[in-house]
Amino acid sequence: MGDWGPEQIAALFTRDGQYLCARWGRPVAPVIFGLADETLDVFRSVTRAALAHAGIPLAETDPEMGANLLSFFVRNWAELEGIPDLARLTGQDDLPARLQAQAADQYRIFRFDADGGIRACITLVNMGGRLADAHPAELAEALVMRSLLTFAQEVPPSPSLAVLIRAAYDPAMPLVARDPSHALRLAARMAVAR
């Protein structure tokens, strides 16, 4: 994607005409379900590296939720029915059927603290379709990077994305921004970081 200007950055965080760029405001306690041990190790390593890159503290547990970065891997969306309290966890009663109808390969849900920072992120991944042959490290990188900020669209991992994430986690930047002018500040920080 090369160098990103404010317009390209604003588009990454704009959905239905609303700009939202929120970052984690608490340490991240990840948990991953549904992967074989060797793949699980890859995902854990990539997750730790991505959190360290952004400067986000890693925790064993979250005091309120236990885990707050939850990733579920299934072979088909029907398997989600086996997750206890899925509707309560996601806040959506008919999620497996909707994902099946949309032929989605992944779905992400963010929860927020009162101050607007990310409180939790739940990622659901269907490994039975287009992602069946995905390289574990590349898939892990894409999934974890997309969970670090409230992107409005799927963003492929790249050096530019890594710089953007670091810029958003600069202590001088706000925890949450709803005004597109925030993208100007991100672009300026990215230019300095290059």
TrEMBL record:
Give the top-rank taxon of the lineage listed in the UniProt record for this protein.
Bacteria
Supply the name of the protein. Answer: Uncharacterized protein
**Source organism:** Paracoccus limosus
Traced from the root, the source organism's taxonomic lineage reads: Bacteria, Pseudomonadati, Pseudomonadota, Alphaproteobacteria, Rhodobacterales
